[in-house]
Fold these 2 entries.
Entry 1:
Amino acid sequence: MTARTILSFGLSFGAAASAFAALTPAQAAEDPAPVMPIRVMPINDHLTAFYQGRPEERSVKHGPKRWPDLGAIFVGVATYAIHQGDTAVVYDSFTDTGSAQWVRDHLAKAGVRHFMLVNSHWHLDHIGGNAVYADTPRFASEATRTKLVAKQAAIEAGAEEGPPAIMPLAVPDIGVTADTTIMVGTVRVVLRPAQIHSADGLVIELPGDKILLAGDTLEDTATFVAEPQSIPQQYGNLSAMRQWGFTKILPNHGNPEVIAKGGYGLGLLDTTRAYIRRLVEHAHDADFQKQSLVSFVGDAVKAGDVSLWWAYNEAHANNLAVVAKAWKGQPIPGFDKLP
C-alpha cells in the first residue's frame, strides 16, 4: 500500500456505540475464560486496552519456561482495540487463540461486527491469535508478511522458538509499505512503518488523540534488543518518531497501571533511546555483561519515566549478551553525530 492510502469502513452508530460504553466489568466476567486472565482498560470512548500477565516474581514456579512466558506473560502484554460503532481495529492478537477469541467475543458483545487486525511485527507473542481473525482483513508491514511466509512452516511446527506451535498461523493478507490511514468512523487510524526493535515494525498513530500505539518499539522497563547491529539506525529512527506529534505512548509491554491511566509520556521514548545508545557505547567495557539494569535506567526510574520490573533483568542480560557479540571488534559509532 502506498503513502496517503485512506481506507474507510462504513459504520452504524447509535445503539452499537452505546452498547460498548455500557459494558460493565460484571458483564465482561461472563465471557469465556482466556488462557490467562485479561484486564479490560478503557482508555477513551474509542480505544480500549486488553492486558494479560505480569505476575509477581514470587508466584512464578521454577522449571522450564516457554516463549509465551518469557516474551509476553512475565513482562506483561497488551493488545488494543480502536472501535466506533460496529467496527474495530485490533492491534496484535496475544500469544494464543484462546485469548484472542476472548477479546473478539468481548468486542462483539459490545456491538462490534466488523473487525480488522493489525500486527505490529512478526514476533510470535504478537501473532499467536491471528487465526481468530482469519475471516477479516489482516494488516502488517510487507516485511512482516514476507517474514511470516518464510517462517510459517517452522512456526506451525513449534520449531521457531520451541513449543507451543501456532497452528494454524493466519498470515496477514494486506502488506503496508508506507503510512496508511484507516478511518474507523470518525477516528483516523494511521499505520506507520517503523524500523525500531525489528526492521518490520508497524506502529499505529491516532493523531486526533495524540496517542502512539507503539507495539514493541518502546517498552517498560527496557526494550528487548532483537537486532543489535541496527541500533544506531534505531536510535535515529526514535529521534524522528519523537517529532510526529503524539504526547502519549501505549506500548504492548509495560506497566498496567500506567497503561490504564492513559499511557506514558515522551520520557519512555527518551529512556529507550538512551538505553540502546548506552548499550553500544559500553559494549567494549571489560565488565559490560555484569552491568545491572538499574545502572542503565536508574535515573529514568527516579523520574517516573519507567518502572523496574523483575522479568526485565533477564531481558537486560540477553541484551548485554547480544550487543557484546554484535559489536565485538567493531568501532563504536559517534551517536552525537546521528540524528
Entry 2:
Amino acid sequence: MKGLEKLSWKELREQIKQIQPELCEIIDDLSPPDEYSLYVGTYPYGAMILDSGIFQIVNDYNVLVPLTHSSINKEAKRDLSYTRTIPMAVILENSIETFFCISNRTIPSSFYTPGDMISLWRVLEGESSYQEGSLWNISSGARTICMLPKITDNTSHEFLKKKYNLKTHAPVDLTEHWSTFVRIANHNNFSQPWYSRLMFFSENWSKHSKDKNWSRFYQFILNKAWQDSTFKRNQFIFDFAFSLAQKSKNLKPNPYLADTVKHLIGIGAGGVPGLAPAINDIAAPITGLQQTYIEEYRLKKHAPIIMHLHPFTLGEKRPVYYSLSMPTTIIFSPRSSKALSKMVDIRQLKHILDAFISETINGKLLIEKTPLFDLAKNVSYKFYHTEKDIHEEILPVTFITEDDLLFQKILGNFPERAFPEFSPFINGCVAISQKAEDKK
C-alpha cells in the first residue's frame, strides 16, 4: 500500500467521472497542466487523517505521520499545507467521519462517502477561518460505530485478545466499540483489508478565485459548500421557533432534554447525522468484523448488527436512530441529577417533540413556508424502550423489526440468529423515518 501518491488529472479523471461527473466536466474544460498536481491518500480503518487539527498521511514506511514530518518530501509539504488544516479533497473510496473529541466525549459532525468533498469552507473563507484548530478530527471510516449485541463478556473477549493481540479489556459501553474494532481491523490476522482513499488538491488549484476561466470551478465549490451548510445557516430560525413552542405550550424542560430534542429535529432536517444499521462495507470492514464476532468472539444467539453514522434523507426512505446510551448532541447541557430513568427521559422527550411538531403544523410558530414545516408533516419519530411503558406512550423494542424492514433484511443474512432486543443502544432510542403515508 502506498500511503500518498502524486498523480495528474489525466491519471485520476476516470475515477472522478464515476463519482462526481459534473466536477469532471468542469476540470476537463480547464485542461489543467501537469503541475496542477493531485495527491491520493490511502488510510487504513480508524486512522486519524486529521488529529486535533493536524493533517496526517501514511509515509513510505507505512507509518501515519503529520504532514510536517521529516519523512515527507518537501514537494508534498509545499503542495498540501495551503489550508493549514486538511487540503480540499474528494472522497474516492469508502468513507471518513469528522468529529470533535472533548475529554471522554466524542461528538460526530459529518459522514462523507465517495463523491463528497471536504475542506471547501476553509478554501472559500480565505486567511481567517473557523475551520482551523485542535477542535477538529477526521477518521478513516466511521468513528461513531457500535455493535447492537452486547460484547462485554470477558471470557469471549479473551479469544479476540489472543488472536488479535489486543491489550485492552472488553468494551464497557457503546463508545468503546470503535477502538476495539480498529485494533482488530488493523491486525495481520484480520480477514478483510479495508482502506479509505481521498484525492487531495494541491495549492495551485486554490489560487484562481478571481480568474474568469476558473469561475465554474469555484462556483461548483461554492454551491457544494452552500448546500452542505443549509441547516447550520438557518439554525437561528429553528432556535427561535423552538423558543416560541416552549412559551406557547409552557414547556420548561431541563436543558439536557431540550438539547436532545433540538438534535432530533436536526437529524430529521438532515442537518446532523443519526445512526443506521450497516448494509455494506463503506463505513468500516463490516463483513470482517461480523465474521470475527461470530467465529472468534463466539457471539451466541444474536445477529452481529453494526450501527454507524448515517444522515437522514427523505428520498432514501431509510430510518436512522438516536440512542440515549450513545448521545451525539453537539450542544450538551449537564443531565439533571433528578432524572429518574431512561424511560422517564424518553417519555419527556416525546412530549416536548410532539408539542413542537403540533405547534408547527398548527401554524403557531410562523414557519409554514420553511423546510421545518415540511419536516413536521413528513418525518416520523418513534420512541422505543426495552421495558414496558405503563402509559403505553413508548413502543416495545419488538416493534423495531416490524417498523424497519432493513433489520429484517439483515437478519436474513444470519439464519437462526435473533434480533438483539436487549441491546443497550435500543434501551431508550428514537427512530427517525419518513411517514408511511408519504412513501410511494
